[in-house]
Amino acid sequence: MRTLDFAPLYRATVGFDQIADLMDRVLTNEGAQNSYPPYNIEKTDDDTYRISIAVAGFGEADLNVEVRENALIVTAKKADEEAAKKFLHRGIATRAFERRFHLADHVRVTGAAHADGMLHIDLSREVPEALKPRRIQIAGQKAIQTDVVDAKAVN
Question: How much of the chain, in percent, has pLDDT values that exceed 70?
Fold first, then answer.
């Protein structure tokens, strides 16, 4: 049960609505998230990340990775071949799933690889040049006074 109200945050701030939306989304989905399939998120460098998802029993043709509206969506659906099999014990879950990861601004998926029952998705943060910090040259005293008109010269 959610007891926080973010309405005052929306009224008192400008431009921070993404943070409030993120907090609202996390608190709303807190109990509803399932843990299948298990996954890891690791930071491989200052601006690169890797998501590793355990997808045992799924082939490359069964997996789909796509990016939509700042969200990475990984889905898997197994073909119906196993429906005809008669299992005495079924401990390997190959049920269909959809896993969503919300991406921050300027985070881009650079690649995906499937090996040894793991799906690895590489991401990188690419901040545009316009948003990177830049050094401003400080002008000296002479540069400021060049546009000043001498009152005696005008009269």
Answer: 71
